[in-house]
Amino acid sequence: MPVAFSRALARDLAPEVRRQVDPRTSITGQLLAVGLALAGLVLLLLTGAVWWVTTRLAATTAQADAVFGGAVLLLGVFVTTEAFALAAVRQSIVGGLRTLDSRTQAVVERGRFDGEFEIDRDDEIGRLSWNVAELRNELDAQVDAVESLNRDLASVATSQSRTLAACERGDLTRRMDEDTDIPQFDAMALNFNSMMDRTERLVGEVRSFSRTVSEAATATADSVQSARTAAADIVASTESISDGVSEQHRRVDRTAAATGDLSASIEEIAGEADAVAKRSERAARTTREGGAAAEEALGELDAIREQTDRSVADVAALHEMMDDISETTDRIAEMAKRSNKIAINAQIESARSSGGDAAHIISSRIKKLADDTGDAADEIDGLVESLEAQTEAALAGIRETETAVERGAETIETAFDALEDVETAVEDTRVGVEEIDDATDRQADRAQEVAHAVEQVRQIGEATAEEAGEVAERTHEQRSAIDAVNRRIERLSAAADDLDERLDAFTVGQATDATRRRGAA
């Protein structure tokens, strides 16, 4: 057991011993090598000296033994002195290095440079200690500079993080400090501030545009409401015209029936001469009724003519309103194109400056709203064109109705004149029976003319009633189209209001916003 322990101890200590005596890895090995070299040199010199003395000078064996003993003693003293000297030198060098090593290890372990490295020595170890102390002082100064730089970096990073957070919350007036004495941060702040200037300007322009769109939509809605009111008036007028024409048609039918009775009466007068007076009275009464009906028809036609004139004026006013609506939709479409171009520029600037997702999302929403606004303007423009076409058709129908009414009035006036002639003839018949035959013939002819004229009036009245019905139907279609335009305008106004509410979440400079509004105006 002791043998095994000794072997294990020798095996464990052998590498350390070899390292200590190896002159390539330790000062002890170097000193040992120097001592052995000196001892060998001294031994060689003493051996040569003893040989020379014993062979040249010593005459006896005793003298030779004395010389040899003195040489051995001198060698022992030299070796002992050398060993102590080398041990002292080793202790001085190794001790100083170990002290310096322990102090540097303490600095490394504490992470601080407040230890003492100076050693009260003037040799190389002392100079090495002073060099280490100077290195320690330089490292301490560099560490202080690095810590100060870290504090400055942390302060700048905190300030810029707060600025980014404020911008993310919608405050576009915040800017980064461009004078931090850190070139990288200054360059980043300069680029960020430039990007935020462009973003703030774009948001201000879009906000001004959204308000302009909202105001234009409100004005258009007012115009559409006026057009809607005018269309309602036209509907009422056309319905009144249709009712008047229908009433006229019914009265013309009654007039036609009266003229038929008149013709029958005249034929009876021709066949029954003995009842001329009585039948003439009936003819006169019938003629007066026909004249009254003709007068009423003329009055109704005058009313229809006035209603037709008002309808023409209302349709013309509606046409002018459609022109105003078309101009407004053109302005809205132009503003939508400008908004789309602004949104595309915002996306390009956001992608170029890497400003984050917030500006990209804003520009995307702005572009979508601009596309929706353009589509709505195109739809409104199409509806306005359709409404203008229907208005032109309605105006043409009303003018045709007016022409037909004029023809009906002329026909009724002709019938009225004919009835007056019939009445005169009947009165003449009552005066002289001798003229009965001639008068009845004339009355028969006139009655045929009256019947023909009344039939023409009836046909014109029927056509007028149909045309008035078509005008009323087209006017209802116009009103439906105006209602559709009104709904589109309301959606456009709601979209503009929604955009304005979304943009209110962003804070921009008052001067910048005012400048944008003046530019928009």
From TrEMBL:
Domain named Methyl-accepting transducer: residues: 223-458
One Pfam family from the record: MCPsignal
Transmembrane segments: 31-54, 66-89
GO BP field: signal transduction
Domain HAMP: 91-144, 151-204
Coiled coil in keyword set: no
One GO CC term on file: membrane
Keywords from the UniProt entry: Membrane, Transducer, Transmembrane, Transmembrane helix
SMART domains noted in UniProt: HAMP, MA
Protein family membership: Belongs to the methyl-accepting chemotaxis (MCP) protein family.
Protein name: Methyl-accepting chemotaxis protein
Species the sequence originates in: Natronoarchaeum philippinense
